[in-house]
Amino acid sequence: MSVSNARRLxxxxxxxxxxxxxxxxxxxLIGDAKSQPESLAVAPGGVLFVGSASxxxxxxxxxGSSTAEKFIDASAEGPGTFFFGMLxxxxxxxxxxxxxxxxxxxxxxxxxxxxxxxDLSTGAPKVRWSLPEDDSTCNDFSIGPxxxxxITDTTNGKIYRLPAGASTAELYLEHRTLMGVDGxxxxxxxxxxxxxxxxxxxxxxxxxxxKPGKPIDIWMDQPVKGPDGMRAANGKLIVAENxxxxxxxxxxxxxxxxxxxxKEGLKSPTGVEPAGDTLWISERGxxxxxxxPMPK
Length: 296
Hints:
This protein is mainly beta. It is built from one helix and 25 strands.
């Protein structure tokens, strides 16, 4: 092959990569610019489920579509009801979400929150478990190696555990460093949480009997601001920083971690969801979800 032909081939390959990445990107308005999509999840087949922090709806976006349809309507639950965390559990055909409803006539505002499980296909209610505190913030969750669901309560600094097939969760861990706990995920079988108030990342150690211990502070080589939704992919923690408008990948090495910025300039990103070669992001401040190529 001549040098000129080799150069033309290299140019074509580069353009193909660019066009492929562009085609895989998406920018989808959820209802309207004020919908405040807090969290999102992806079901098998590429269906998106997106919660709203400003309305009592969970939206569904079919694969290949740019239109958000109302999937769950909780308007009968009380004024001001909205949704936080979203998680698809394909094995049990369940969409998990956190439902929050303000308590009337309270100053400062208190919220009653519940873990809700809905049929992934029909939206029919399956599980409802109310967090026990008078004021709570069911925020996010992750499925562990034991198939249990681990749930964060931001207001009360607690992590709950819902065993597979159960309808009532149990307290898993309560600790003062967890006041402000938000994102939660398992990386290589180890539980990690972040703190949206104090901009921290913690590993939860577990003893030989399976009991959790004091959260271990992971030192990061650059600041994160408002770490929110967090998922694990390709050996890294992917985090939405709502305070800096940034999506970052965190590589953990023992009790230290390196932070790599993946995308900047977003308006209050609050959720991330890896799905194959695509990383989905909920941009709460813009009322939309978007996708970027998943970093290797």
